[in-house]
Amino acid sequence: MKILYGLHNLRRHPPQPRALTIGNFDGVHRGHQAMLALLINEARHRGVPSCAVTFEPHPRDFFAARLRRPELVPARIATLRDKLAELRRCGIDECVILPFDAALAALSAEAFIDEVLVGALGARYVLVGDDFRFGAQRRGDYALLDAAGEARGFDVARMMSYEVHGLRVSSSAVREALSAGDMAHAAALLGRPYAISGHVVHGRKLGRALGESARGRGDGFRTLNLRFDHWKPAASGIFVVQVHGLDPAPDAAPLPGVANLGVRPSLDPNDVNGGRVLLETHCLSWPERVQRALAHAPSPGEAYGRIIRVELLHKLHDERRYDSLDALTAGIAQDCADARAWFAAHGPTPARPS
Length: 354
Fold this sequence. Notes:
By secondary structure, this protein is α/β, with parallel strands linked by helices. Helices cover 32% and strands 23% of the residues. It has two domains: 2-168, Rossmann fold, CATH 3.40.50.620; 193-346, Elongation Factor Tu (Ef-tu), domain 3 (Beta Barrel). The longest helix is centred in the C-terminal third of the chain and has 22 residues, at 325-346.
């Protein structure tokens, strides 16, 4: 999938004809997937590339910052990395990321059509959702877009809501499920287990000392740390998880684990991740072949820099504050025991097809 950032990169060349859809695509849920499948079919019928146009930051993030009202910011389901990965998995040819700033927010609906859809993107077919609004003060709607398409020579189509068991699938519904810790319902809406991916980063290296054996080799609750690049994640707490990307075997099963997602109080004022949302994952087992693979890593025995994907399967509880390291160690040990019990009862979740 080709990724284009900003209108300036599009305006360097004459506009190429495209079939496109526009949205935030937070989570790329089953409703998004159905729309993207229709878009791809229409693009192939016309012999043009399929293109998803999205925004970063989310427009509501921008307006919340302008109003200084952080409570208006929607909880983020997916990082930009994961959104792009899911769009690629859906088979989209191109993704255009438009920085949502004051200039874009001030653009009238008519100017958005003329300057962005036609002038920069060369729209030949535009597919939108049933609640689509655009332009300054959200004055643009489907009727305006359809009339403009007839006048400017591009087709416009609208896709109605996608439902699962009679319930409308939306990013808001996914956020509600994740906030409630209902990972099964979130997976049903997404069409896959909820997951977060990214590069493994350095942490406090505290976990490896907690629960360390008498050998003193840092063999305690070592964690794989991923940054979630938004201050307000839709999910938070302690989860049963499985980890993809560590085992080098092509048909390797994911590694079972337990993870903390959130902003935990740092015991170290120099913590490189202080104040950041972090997903800290402890694998319940480290197969020998994984240890052998990591032995040849740039930092022998470590996974820093590797890209992994962590699927959050079941929520154990909300984040807890512990009064001492001993209490923290006991809490992590209990979480590990509960995660093992969950896997014993449910087994691993089947891997997604590539």
